[in-house]
Amino acid sequence: MAADEPTLDPRDALAGIDRRSLIVFVTATVLLVVFEYWGLPSRFDGSSFHGDVADALGPGYRPYFDLLPYQYWGVSSLVLRVLAPVLVIVIVLGEHPKEWGFRVRGQWPQLRPYAIALVLMIPIVYVVSALDSFQAKYPFYELASVGGWHFWGYHLFYGLQFLGLEVFFRGFLLFGLYRRLGYYAIPVMVIPYTMIHFGKPVPETFAAIIAGFVLGYLALKSRSVLWGWAVHWGVAITMDIMVIGREVGFSQIRRILF
To answer: How many CB atoms lie within 10 A of CB 191?
Structure first.
């Protein structure tokens, strides 16, 4: 080792660890693992629990048997990515959730940049919806193109999934680390956020990097995840409508939605 090369003392690193950040890192890591192994539609589909829930809902819900895994996905996202972090924030850290992006009041003045982002995304979504990779992937629930509850029963719970996603990444992880890392908390959040897009079309995965930085910055400026959730959900619905429209004809969209 060169004489002028700095040495690293582990005690210096440990001295820099604060309780709040450590709890955020550990909690986020554990919840990411739990959600991957127990929260996804594939973990519910075909399980005994799947049949039990269908039986409990009665024969009237049997036509929507294949929809249940995606509704489970929305509920598990609400539990693991919203309720669990809130419990950690309130009970373990003794803080108020509004300081972690859970703000609704006073958000109307923050709408403009999010609305611009959504408007800019619509033509992009229209273009990429013509790509084979996107047509093969969306909508996740194939029967959404049937319309009625097949469409809205899917998208309402899909919206819960996006609520959990925004709260977890742009709320709990970002605001939890911002006090310690400042704006460097954004790229730290973007890394796992990008990784959950693995398996999706390549353009979408690269776009997730940009979206992560933009939505992260806007969340810190607005102090809320509210509009980020709205934009994310809106883009997802638009993508499914575009893909379905290309499949069955855009003249059929009104029948599907209404």
So the answer is: 10
